[in-house]
Amino acid sequence: MEKHTESIVKFQNISKVFPGVKALDGVSFDIKKGEIHALLGENGAGKSTLLNTLHGVNNVYEGTVEIKGRKVSYKNANEAIQDGIVKIHQEVSLIPELTVGQNIALGHEPRKGMFIDYKKLHQEANAILSKMKCSFKSEDIAGTLSTGEMQMIAIAKGLYHNAQLISFDEPTASLSNQEVRTLFSIINDLKENGITILYVSHRLDEVFDICDRATVLRDGKHIETFNIKDVNREQLIKKMVGRDVSAYAVRTKPSPKTNQKVLEVEDLSVKGVFEDVSFHLHKGEILGFAGLVGSKRTDVVRAIFGAEQKSGGTVKINGVTVNIKSPKQGVQLGIGLIPENRKTQGFIKYFDNANNVGLTKMEKFTKFGLLNHTKKMENCNYYIDEINLKPSDPHYMTSHLSGGNQQKVVIAKWLSSDAEILILDEPTKGVDVGAKAEIYRVLEELLEKGKSIIVVSSELPEVLGLSDRIIVMREGRKVKEFENHNLTEEDILQYAMGVNSDVKNEGI
Ligand SMILES: Nc1ncnc2c1ncn2[C@@H]1O[C@H](COP(=O)(O)OP(=O)(O)OP(=O)(O)O)[C@@H](O)[C@H]1O
Protein backbone atom coordinates (compact mmCIF):
# COMPACT_ATOMS: atom_id res chain seq x y z
CA MET A 1 0.00 0.00 0.00
CA GLU A 2 1.25 3.49 -0.81
CA LYS A 3 2.54 5.37 2.20
CA HIS A 4 0.28 8.04 3.76
CA THR A 5 -2.96 7.02 2.08
CA GLU A 6 -4.64 5.04 4.81
CA SER A 7 -6.35 7.15 7.50
CA ILE A 8 -5.63 6.40 11.13
CA VAL A 9 -7.97 9.12 12.45
CA LYS A 10 -11.13 10.50 10.90
CA PHE A 11 -12.81 13.47 12.58
CA GLN A 12 -16.39 13.93 11.38
CA ASN A 13 -18.37 17.03 12.22
CA ILE A 14 -16.88 17.48 15.69
CA SER A 15 -18.46 20.27 17.73
CA LYS A 16 -17.86 21.21 21.34
CA VAL A 17 -19.53 23.99 23.27
CA PHE A 18 -18.30 25.51 26.52
CA PRO A 19 -20.55 28.04 28.26
CA GLY A 20 -20.52 31.04 25.94
CA VAL A 21 -17.97 29.61 23.47
CA LYS A 22 -18.16 27.20 20.56
CA ALA A 23 -14.66 25.75 20.89
CA LEU A 24 -15.12 23.37 17.93
CA ASP A 25 -17.64 23.93 15.17
CA GLY A 26 -18.24 21.02 12.77
CA VAL A 27 -14.58 20.00 12.33
CA SER A 28 -13.94 17.21 9.78
CA PHE A 29 -10.58 15.99 8.46
CA ASP A 30 -8.37 12.87 8.32
CA ILE A 31 -4.94 12.08 9.71
CA LYS A 32 -3.06 9.59 7.54
CA LYS A 33 -1.14 6.67 8.93
CA GLY A 34 2.59 7.35 9.28
CA GLU A 35 2.50 11.10 8.61
CA ILE A 36 3.57 14.02 10.76
CA HIS A 37 0.46 16.17 10.84
CA ALA A 38 0.57 19.72 12.23
CA LEU A 39 -2.47 21.14 13.98
CA LEU A 40 -2.26 24.91 13.70
CA GLY A 41 -4.26 27.97 14.64
CA GLU A 42 -4.30 31.08 16.78
CA ASN A 43 -4.69 30.99 20.55
CA GLY A 44 -8.19 29.78 21.30
CA ALA A 45 -8.69 28.28 17.83
CA GLY A 46 -9.65 24.92 19.38
CA LYS A 47 -6.44 22.86 19.02
CA SER A 48 -6.28 21.63 22.62
CA THR A 49 -10.01 20.90 22.65
CA LEU A 50 -9.60 18.73 19.54
CA LEU A 51 -6.61 16.92 21.08
CA ASN A 52 -8.65 16.33 24.24
CA THR A 53 -11.44 14.90 22.10
CA LEU A 54 -9.05 12.50 20.36
CA HIS A 55 -7.42 11.39 23.61
CA GLY A 56 -10.55 10.75 25.65
CA VAL A 57 -10.13 13.78 27.94
CA ASN A 58 -13.11 15.57 26.45
CA ASN A 59 -15.80 12.94 26.10
CA VAL A 60 -18.86 15.16 25.70
CA TYR A 61 -19.01 16.40 22.12
CA GLU A 62 -21.01 16.15 18.92
CA GLY A 63 -19.79 14.27 15.85
CA THR A 64 -17.72 11.11 15.51
CA VAL A 65 -14.09 10.12 15.87
CA GLU A 66 -12.96 7.03 13.95
CA ILE A 67 -9.68 5.28 14.69
CA LYS A 68 -8.55 2.86 11.97
CA GLY A 69 -12.08 2.76 10.56
CA ARG A 70 -13.75 2.05 13.90
CA LYS A 71 -15.94 4.60 15.67
CA VAL A 72 -14.61 5.23 19.17
CA SER A 73 -15.85 7.16 22.18
CA TYR A 74 -13.15 6.93 24.81
CA LYS A 75 -14.35 7.61 28.33
CA ASN A 76 -10.88 8.60 29.51
CA ALA A 77 -7.25 8.93 28.41
CA ASN A 78 -6.43 5.37 29.51
CA GLU A 79 -8.90 3.90 27.04
CA ALA A 80 -7.24 5.87 24.25
CA ILE A 81 -3.79 4.66 25.37
CA GLN A 82 -5.00 1.05 25.27
CA ASP A 83 -5.84 1.74 21.60
CA GLY A 84 -2.33 3.12 20.97
CA ILE A 85 -3.45 6.78 20.95
CA VAL A 86 -0.96 8.56 23.20
CA LYS A 87 -0.45 12.20 24.15
CA ILE A 88 2.84 13.62 25.35
CA HIS A 89 1.96 16.41 27.76
CA GLN A 90 3.72 19.75 27.79
CA GLU A 91 4.68 19.30 31.42
CA VAL A 92 5.69 15.66 31.63
CA SER A 93 4.68 14.29 35.03
CA LEU A 94 6.91 11.48 36.21
CA ILE A 95 7.58 10.09 39.65
CA PRO A 96 11.08 11.45 40.23
CA GLU A 97 12.05 8.93 42.92
CA LEU A 98 11.38 5.92 40.65
CA THR A 99 13.68 4.60 37.96
CA VAL A 100 13.16 5.46 34.31
CA GLY A 101 11.95 1.90 33.65
CA GLN A 102 9.46 1.96 36.53
CA ASN A 103 8.03 5.20 35.16
CA ILE A 104 7.78 3.76 31.68
CA ALA A 105 5.96 0.61 32.80
CA LEU A 106 3.96 2.21 35.64
CA GLY A 107 0.70 0.32 36.18
CA HIS A 108 1.58 -2.25 33.50
CA GLU A 109 4.68 -3.88 34.97
CA PRO A 110 5.59 -7.41 33.81
CA ARG A 111 5.01 -9.89 36.63
CA LYS A 112 6.53 -13.13 37.82
CA GLY A 113 3.80 -14.65 39.94
CA MET A 114 2.85 -12.02 42.50
CA PHE A 115 5.98 -9.96 42.05
CA ILE A 116 7.11 -7.39 39.54
CA ASP A 117 9.67 -8.88 37.17
CA TYR A 118 12.22 -6.05 37.34
CA LYS A 119 14.72 -7.83 35.13
CA LYS A 120 12.20 -8.07 32.31
CA LEU A 121 10.93 -4.55 33.00
CA HIS A 122 14.40 -3.03 32.59
CA GLN A 123 15.16 -5.25 29.58
CA GLU A 124 12.03 -4.12 27.79
CA ALA A 125 12.48 -0.46 28.74
CA ASN A 126 16.17 -0.48 27.75
CA ALA A 127 15.26 -2.00 24.38
CA ILE A 128 12.94 0.95 23.70
CA LEU A 129 15.44 3.53 25.02
CA SER A 130 18.23 2.16 22.87
CA LYS A 131 15.96 2.16 19.80
CA MET A 132 15.38 5.84 20.58
CA LYS A 133 19.17 6.28 20.96
CA CYS A 134 18.74 7.69 24.49
CA SER A 135 21.94 8.13 26.47
CA PHE A 136 20.33 7.18 29.81
CA LYS A 137 19.26 3.76 31.04
CA SER A 138 16.10 2.19 32.42
CA GLU A 139 17.85 1.77 35.79
CA ASP A 140 18.58 5.53 36.18
CA ILE A 141 16.50 7.57 38.64
CA ALA A 142 14.01 9.69 36.65
CA GLY A 143 14.34 12.80 38.86
CA THR A 144 18.01 13.24 37.91
CA LEU A 145 17.26 13.76 34.20
CA SER A 146 16.76 17.00 32.22
CA THR A 147 13.43 18.28 30.86
CA GLY A 148 14.30 16.97 27.41
CA GLU A 149 15.21 13.55 28.75
CA MET A 150 11.96 13.40 30.72
CA GLN A 151 10.11 14.00 27.48
CA MET A 152 11.99 11.05 26.00
CA ILE A 153 10.70 8.91 28.90
CA ALA A 154 7.15 10.00 28.09
CA ILE A 155 7.67 8.95 24.47
CA ALA A 156 9.22 5.65 25.57
CA LYS A 157 6.18 5.12 27.78
CA GLY A 158 3.98 5.60 24.72
CA LEU A 159 6.03 3.05 22.78
CA TYR A 160 5.79 0.62 25.70
CA HIS A 161 2.03 0.82 25.19
CA ASN A 162 2.47 0.16 21.48
CA ALA A 163 1.61 3.70 20.46
CA GLN A 164 0.34 4.08 16.91
CA LEU A 165 -0.36 7.78 17.12
CA ILE A 166 1.51 10.21 19.35
CA SER A 167 0.35 13.81 19.87
CA PHE A 168 2.77 16.52 20.93
CA ASP A 169 1.52 19.85 22.29
CA GLU A 170 4.25 22.53 21.99
CA PRO A 171 6.95 19.95 22.80
CA THR A 172 9.95 22.22 22.29
CA ALA A 173 8.87 25.11 24.53
CA SER A 174 11.25 24.18 27.37
CA LEU A 175 13.97 22.33 25.45
CA SER A 176 17.54 23.38 24.65
CA ASN A 177 18.62 23.50 20.98
CA GLN A 178 20.41 20.17 21.34
CA GLU A 179 17.34 18.57 22.92
CA VAL A 180 15.16 19.90 20.10
CA ARG A 181 17.46 18.26 17.54
CA THR A 182 17.31 14.96 19.44
CA LEU A 183 13.52 15.17 19.68
CA PHE A 184 13.17 15.80 15.93
CA SER A 185 15.38 12.90 15.09
CA ILE A 186 13.28 10.65 17.35
CA ILE A 187 10.07 11.95 15.77
CA ASN A 188 11.47 11.18 12.32
CA ASP A 189 12.45 7.66 13.45
CA LEU A 190 8.94 7.11 14.83
CA LYS A 191 7.55 8.13 11.46
CA GLU A 192 9.92 5.72 9.70
CA ASN A 193 8.46 3.00 11.92
CA GLY A 194 4.95 3.79 10.75
CA ILE A 195 3.89 5.76 13.84
CA THR A 196 1.67 8.77 13.18
CA ILE A 197 2.49 12.10 14.80
CA LEU A 198 0.06 14.91 15.54
CA TYR A 199 2.06 18.05 16.20
CA VAL A 200 0.75 21.27 17.79
CA SER A 201 3.12 24.24 17.76
CA HIS A 202 3.18 28.00 17.37
CA ARG A 203 6.77 27.75 16.11
CA LEU A 204 6.28 27.71 12.37
CA ASP A 205 9.93 26.94 11.54
CA GLU A 206 9.48 23.60 13.26
CA VAL A 207 6.34 22.88 11.29
CA PHE A 208 8.20 23.49 8.04
CA ASP A 209 11.14 21.39 9.30
CA ILE A 210 9.33 18.21 10.23
CA CYS A 211 5.67 18.12 9.20
CA ASP A 212 4.17 16.52 6.08
CA ARG A 213 0.66 17.97 6.19
CA ALA A 214 -1.12 20.57 8.28
CA THR A 215 -4.63 21.38 9.38
CA VAL A 216 -5.55 24.94 10.27
CA LEU A 217 -8.36 25.70 12.73
CA ARG A 218 -9.75 29.19 13.17
CA ASP A 219 -12.46 30.10 15.73
CA GLY A 220 -13.24 26.40 16.16
CA LYS A 221 -13.75 25.81 12.43
CA HIS A 222 -11.72 23.67 10.07
CA ILE A 223 -10.16 26.03 7.55
CA GLU A 224 -8.00 23.76 5.42
CA THR A 225 -5.84 20.62 5.40
CA PHE A 226 -2.87 20.74 2.99
CA ASN A 227 0.67 19.56 2.21
CA ILE A 228 3.25 21.72 3.98
CA LYS A 229 5.46 21.89 0.93
CA ASP A 230 2.65 23.54 -1.04
CA VAL A 231 2.65 26.72 1.08
CA ASN A 232 5.16 29.34 2.16
CA ARG A 233 5.37 31.03 5.55
CA GLU A 234 3.23 34.03 4.64
CA GLN A 235 0.49 31.86 3.12
CA LEU A 236 0.45 29.65 6.20
CA ILE A 237 0.12 32.61 8.55
CA LYS A 238 -2.67 34.06 6.47
CA LYS A 239 -4.60 30.81 6.70
CA MET A 240 -4.17 30.83 10.49
CA VAL A 241 -4.93 34.46 11.19
CA GLY A 242 -7.16 35.29 8.24
CA ARG A 243 -5.16 38.42 7.40
CA ASP A 244 -1.60 39.46 6.53
CA VAL A 245 0.61 39.64 9.63
CA SER A 246 4.34 40.09 9.85
CA ALA A 247 5.76 36.95 11.37
CA TYR A 248 8.86 38.78 12.44
CA ALA A 249 9.52 41.04 15.40
CA VAL A 250 10.16 44.51 14.03
CA ARG A 251 10.21 47.98 15.57
CA THR A 252 7.99 50.27 13.54
CA LYS A 253 8.99 53.58 15.17
CA PRO A 254 12.31 55.23 15.96
CA SER A 255 13.53 54.26 19.43
CA PRO A 256 12.72 56.86 22.12
CA LYS A 257 15.81 55.70 24.06
CA THR A 258 17.38 58.41 26.28
CA ASN A 259 20.67 58.54 28.19
CA GLN A 260 18.92 58.54 31.56
CA LYS A 261 19.76 55.36 33.50
CA VAL A 262 16.62 54.07 35.24
CA LEU A 263 18.24 50.86 36.43
CA GLU A 264 21.88 50.22 37.28
CA VAL A 265 22.99 46.75 38.26
CA GLU A 266 26.53 46.16 39.49
CA ASP A 267 28.19 42.82 40.23
CA LEU A 268 24.86 41.21 41.05
CA SER A 269 25.20 37.60 42.25
CA VAL A 270 23.03 34.83 43.58
CA LYS A 271 25.35 32.28 45.16
CA GLY A 272 25.76 29.15 43.04
CA VAL A 273 23.45 30.47 40.32
CA PHE A 274 25.00 33.52 38.63
CA GLU A 275 27.86 35.84 39.40
CA ASP A 276 28.94 39.46 38.95
CA VAL A 277 26.36 40.58 36.43
CA SER A 278 26.55 44.31 35.64
CA PHE A 279 24.46 46.36 33.23
CA HIS A 280 22.18 49.35 33.05
CA LEU A 281 18.83 50.14 31.45
CA HIS A 282 18.08 53.49 29.80
CA LYS A 283 14.72 55.20 29.95
CA GLY A 284 12.77 54.44 26.78
CA GLU A 285 14.82 51.49 25.58
CA ILE A 286 14.34 47.76 25.20
CA LEU A 287 17.26 45.79 26.56
CA GLY A 288 17.31 42.19 25.35
CA PHE A 289 18.72 39.24 27.29
CA ALA A 290 19.83 36.34 25.12
CA GLY A 291 21.41 33.02 26.06
CA LEU A 292 20.81 29.31 25.89
CA VAL A 293 18.58 27.34 28.26
CA GLY A 294 20.48 27.22 31.57
CA SER A 295 22.31 30.53 31.06
CA LYS A 296 20.45 31.92 34.14
CA ARG A 297 18.89 34.93 32.41
CA THR A 298 15.64 34.35 34.30
CA ASP A 299 17.44 34.19 37.66
CA VAL A 300 19.08 37.57 37.01
CA VAL A 301 15.78 39.34 36.38
CA ARG A 302 14.09 37.52 39.27
CA ALA A 303 16.84 38.70 41.62
CA ILE A 304 16.38 42.30 40.48
CA PHE A 305 12.63 42.01 41.13
CA GLY A 306 13.16 40.49 44.60
CA ALA A 307 11.91 37.01 43.71
CA GLU A 308 15.38 35.58 44.41
CA GLN A 309 17.69 36.76 47.19
CA LYS A 310 20.91 38.31 45.96
CA SER A 311 24.14 37.29 47.65
CA GLY A 312 26.12 40.25 46.38
CA GLY A 313 26.10 43.36 44.23
CA THR A 314 24.06 46.54 44.08
CA VAL A 315 20.91 47.68 42.28
CA LYS A 316 20.06 51.35 41.74
CA ILE A 317 16.73 52.69 40.52
CA ASN A 318 16.92 56.23 39.16
CA GLY A 319 20.32 56.65 40.81
CA VAL A 320 19.18 55.52 44.28
CA THR A 321 20.52 52.29 45.75
CA VAL A 322 17.71 49.90 46.66
CA ASN A 323 17.67 46.59 48.51
CA ILE A 324 14.72 44.71 47.07
CA LYS A 325 13.96 41.67 49.19
CA SER A 326 10.54 40.64 47.89
CA PRO A 327 8.44 40.99 44.71
CA LYS A 328 6.13 43.26 46.74
CA GLN A 329 9.01 45.68 47.26
CA GLY A 330 9.91 45.32 43.59
CA VAL A 331 6.40 46.39 42.60
CA GLN A 332 6.45 49.28 45.09
CA LEU A 333 9.68 50.51 43.53
CA GLY A 334 8.14 50.49 40.07
CA ILE A 335 9.28 47.15 38.64
CA GLY A 336 6.91 44.72 36.92
CA LEU A 337 8.02 41.17 36.11
CA ILE A 338 5.96 39.15 33.66
CA PRO A 339 7.18 35.66 34.47
CA GLU A 340 7.92 32.87 32.04
CA ASN A 341 5.78 30.46 33.98
CA ARG A 342 2.57 32.44 33.67
CA LYS A 343 0.25 29.57 34.51
CA THR A 344 1.52 29.22 38.06
CA GLN A 345 2.92 32.69 38.72
CA GLY A 346 0.75 34.91 36.62
CA PHE A 347 -2.94 35.02 37.52
CA ILE A 348 -5.46 34.04 40.16
CA LYS A 349 -7.37 30.93 39.17
CA TYR A 350 -10.66 31.98 40.75
CA PHE A 351 -10.70 35.48 39.20
CA ASP A 352 -12.27 36.58 35.94
CA ASN A 353 -10.37 38.60 33.33
CA ALA A 354 -11.43 41.98 34.72
CA ASN A 355 -10.10 41.14 38.17
CA ASN A 356 -6.91 39.55 36.91
CA VAL A 357 -6.09 42.40 34.51
CA GLY A 358 -6.83 44.89 37.33
CA LEU A 359 -4.77 43.04 39.98
CA THR A 360 -1.85 45.47 39.93
CA LYS A 361 -4.19 48.45 40.10
CA MET A 362 -6.78 47.44 42.70
CA GLU A 363 -5.53 50.06 45.16
CA LYS A 364 -6.02 52.75 42.53
CA PHE A 365 -9.55 51.57 41.76
CA THR A 366 -10.44 51.61 45.47
CA LYS A 367 -11.46 54.72 47.42
CA PHE A 368 -12.51 54.67 51.07
CA GLY A 369 -12.56 50.87 50.91
CA LEU A 370 -14.96 50.81 47.93
CA LEU A 371 -13.96 49.35 44.60
CA ASN A 372 -14.85 51.49 41.58
CA HIS A 373 -16.22 48.83 39.20
CA THR A 374 -16.56 51.21 36.26
CA LYS A 375 -12.86 52.05 36.37
CA LYS A 376 -11.92 48.39 36.70
CA MET A 377 -14.06 47.46 33.68
CA GLU A 378 -12.77 50.37 31.56
CA ASN A 379 -9.23 49.29 32.30
CA CYS A 380 -9.94 45.66 31.38
CA ASN A 381 -11.88 46.50 28.20
CA TYR A 382 -9.07 48.76 26.98
CA TYR A 383 -6.50 45.98 27.29
CA ILE A 384 -8.83 43.27 25.95
CA ASP A 385 -8.98 45.31 22.75
CA GLU A 386 -5.30 46.10 22.78
CA ILE A 387 -4.20 42.44 22.99
CA ASN A 388 -7.17 41.02 21.06
CA LEU A 389 -8.29 38.65 23.82
CA LYS A 390 -10.53 35.78 22.78
CA PRO A 391 -13.26 35.56 23.97
CA SER A 392 -13.25 39.31 24.62
CA ASP A 393 -15.40 38.98 27.73
CA PRO A 394 -14.14 40.69 30.91
CA HIS A 395 -16.27 38.34 33.03
CA TYR A 396 -14.81 35.14 31.50
CA MET A 397 -12.78 33.11 34.02
CA THR A 398 -9.13 33.44 33.06
CA SER A 399 -8.54 29.76 33.92
CA HIS A 400 -11.05 28.78 31.21
CA LEU A 401 -9.17 30.64 28.46
CA SER A 402 -6.86 28.84 26.04
CA GLY A 403 -3.19 28.76 27.11
CA GLY A 404 -2.14 31.62 24.84
CA ASN A 405 -5.03 33.83 25.88
CA GLN A 406 -4.17 33.25 29.55
CA GLN A 407 -0.73 34.60 28.75
CA LYS A 408 -2.25 37.66 27.15
CA VAL A 409 -4.20 38.35 30.37
CA VAL A 410 -1.02 38.19 32.45
CA ILE A 411 0.74 40.50 30.04
CA ALA A 412 -2.23 42.92 30.14
CA LYS A 413 -2.10 42.88 33.94
CA TRP A 414 1.42 44.27 33.87
CA LEU A 415 0.91 46.54 30.92
CA SER A 416 -1.85 48.26 32.84
CA SER A 417 0.30 48.61 35.97
CA ASP A 418 2.21 51.73 36.96
CA ALA A 419 5.56 49.97 36.67
CA GLU A 420 8.24 52.18 35.12
CA ILE A 421 10.51 49.22 34.46
CA LEU A 422 8.88 46.23 32.83
CA ILE A 423 10.67 42.91 32.64
CA LEU A 424 9.17 40.34 30.29
CA ASP A 425 10.47 36.79 30.49
CA GLU A 426 9.72 34.90 27.25
CA PRO A 427 6.84 37.29 26.44
CA THR A 428 5.57 35.38 23.43
CA LYS A 429 6.11 31.76 24.49
CA GLY A 430 2.99 29.86 23.41
CA VAL A 431 1.51 33.02 21.86
CA ASP A 432 0.29 32.87 18.26
CA VAL A 433 1.76 34.97 15.43
CA GLY A 434 -1.10 37.48 15.36
CA ALA A 435 -0.92 38.08 19.11
CA LYS A 436 2.88 38.31 18.96
CA ALA A 437 2.60 41.25 16.58
CA GLU A 438 0.02 42.85 18.91
CA ILE A 439 2.29 42.44 21.94
CA TYR A 440 5.20 44.01 20.05
CA ARG A 441 3.05 47.05 19.20
CA VAL A 442 2.00 47.41 22.86
CA LEU A 443 5.66 47.36 23.91
CA GLU A 444 6.41 50.19 21.48
CA GLU A 445 3.52 52.19 22.91
CA LEU A 446 4.85 51.67 26.42
CA LEU A 447 8.26 53.01 25.34
CA GLU A 448 6.56 56.09 23.94
CA LYS A 449 4.92 56.56 27.35
CA GLY A 450 8.42 56.69 28.89
CA LYS A 451 8.65 53.15 30.22
CA SER A 452 11.80 51.05 30.02
CA ILE A 453 11.73 47.39 29.14
CA ILE A 454 13.86 44.28 29.58
CA VAL A 455 12.98 41.33 27.34
CA VAL A 456 14.38 37.87 28.09
CA SER A 457 13.82 35.59 25.14
CA SER A 458 15.06 32.32 23.67
CA GLU A 459 13.82 33.37 20.28
CA LEU A 460 16.77 35.15 18.72
CA PRO A 461 14.74 36.86 15.96
CA GLU A 462 12.61 38.36 18.75
CA VAL A 463 15.59 39.68 20.74
CA LEU A 464 17.19 41.01 17.54
CA GLY A 465 13.98 42.56 16.23
CA LEU A 466 12.98 44.30 19.45
CA SER A 467 16.09 45.34 21.38
CA ASP A 468 18.13 48.54 21.35
CA ARG A 469 20.93 46.70 23.11
CA ILE A 470 21.50 43.01 23.82
CA ILE A 471 23.20 41.25 26.73
CA VAL A 472 24.32 37.67 26.18
CA MET A 473 24.52 35.30 29.15
CA ARG A 474 26.24 31.96 29.42
CA GLU A 475 26.40 29.64 32.42
CA GLY A 476 25.60 32.32 34.97
CA ARG A 477 27.85 35.03 33.50
CA LYS A 478 27.32 38.03 31.28
CA VAL A 479 29.63 37.30 28.36
CA LYS A 480 28.80 40.13 25.97
CA GLU A 481 26.93 43.38 25.56
CA PHE A 482 26.02 44.50 22.03
CA GLU A 483 24.58 47.68 20.55
CA ASN A 484 21.99 46.21 18.21
CA HIS A 485 23.40 47.49 14.89
CA ASN A 486 23.44 44.99 12.02
CA LEU A 487 23.74 42.14 14.48
CA THR A 488 23.03 38.61 13.30
CA GLU A 489 21.89 35.46 15.11
CA GLU A 490 25.39 34.04 14.57
CA ASP A 491 26.98 37.01 16.41
CA ILE A 492 24.85 36.24 19.46
CA LEU A 493 25.18 32.46 19.27
CA GLN A 494 28.98 32.66 19.18
CA TYR A 495 28.88 34.16 22.65
CA ALA A 496 25.89 32.20 23.93
CA MET A 497 27.63 28.94 23.02
CA GLY A 498 31.05 29.94 24.30
CA VAL A 499 32.88 30.12 20.96
CA ASN A 500 33.65 33.74 21.83
CA SER A 501 33.78 35.34 25.26
CA ASP A 502 34.64 38.72 26.77
CA VAL A 503 34.85 37.10 30.19
CA LYS A 504 37.97 35.08 30.99
CA ASN A 505 36.94 32.83 33.84
CA GLU A 506 33.43 32.03 32.70
CA GLY A 507 30.96 29.61 34.20
CA ILE A 508 30.29 29.24 37.90
N1 LIG B 1 -12.77 24.25 30.30
C1 LIG B 1 -13.17 25.27 29.56
N2 LIG B 1 -14.20 26.06 29.95
C2 LIG B 1 -14.61 27.09 29.20
N3 LIG B 1 -14.08 27.43 28.00
C3 LIG B 1 -13.06 26.69 27.54
C4 LIG B 1 -12.55 25.58 28.30
N4 LIG B 1 -11.52 25.03 27.59
C5 LIG B 1 -11.39 25.76 26.46
N5 LIG B 1 -12.32 26.75 26.42
C6 LIG B 1 -12.50 27.72 25.34
O1 LIG B 1 -12.53 27.03 24.11
C7 LIG B 1 -11.84 27.76 23.09
C8 LIG B 1 -10.76 26.89 22.46
O2 LIG B 1 -9.72 26.69 23.38
P1 LIG B 1 -8.47 25.73 23.12
O3 LIG B 1 -7.75 25.60 24.42
O4 LIG B 1 -8.92 24.48 22.46
O5 LIG B 1 -7.60 26.60 22.08
P2 LIG B 1 -6.12 26.36 21.51
O6 LIG B 1 -6.23 26.44 20.03
O7 LIG B 1 -5.55 25.13 22.09
O8 LIG B 1 -5.34 27.64 22.02
P3 LIG B 1 -3.78 27.88 22.51
O9 LIG B 1 -2.95 27.96 21.30
O10 LIG B 1 -3.86 29.21 23.19
O11 LIG B 1 -3.43 26.77 23.46
C9 LIG B 1 -11.28 29.01 23.77
O12 LIG B 1 -12.15 30.09 23.49
C10 LIG B 1 -11.33 28.67 25.24
O13 LIG B 1 -11.53 29.85 26.01
TrEMBL record:
GO-annotated molecular function: ATP binding
Gene3D superfamilies tied to this protein: P-loop containing nucleotide triphosphate hydrolases
Transmembrane segments: none
SMART domains in the record: AAA
Protein name: Sugar ABC transporter ATP-binding protein
Keyword flag Nucleotide-binding: yes
Name of one Pfam family that matches: ABC_tran
Domain ABC transporter stretches: 9-244, 250-500
InterPro entries, alphabetized: AAA+_ATPase, ABC_carbohydrate_import_ATPase, ABC_transporter-like_ATP-bd, ABC_transporter-like_CS, P-loop_NTPase
Record keywords, A-Z: ATP-binding, Nucleotide-binding, Repeat, Transport
Superkingdom per UniProt: Bacteria
SUPFAM superfamilies according to UniProt: P-loop containing nucleoside triphosphate hydrolases (SSF52540)
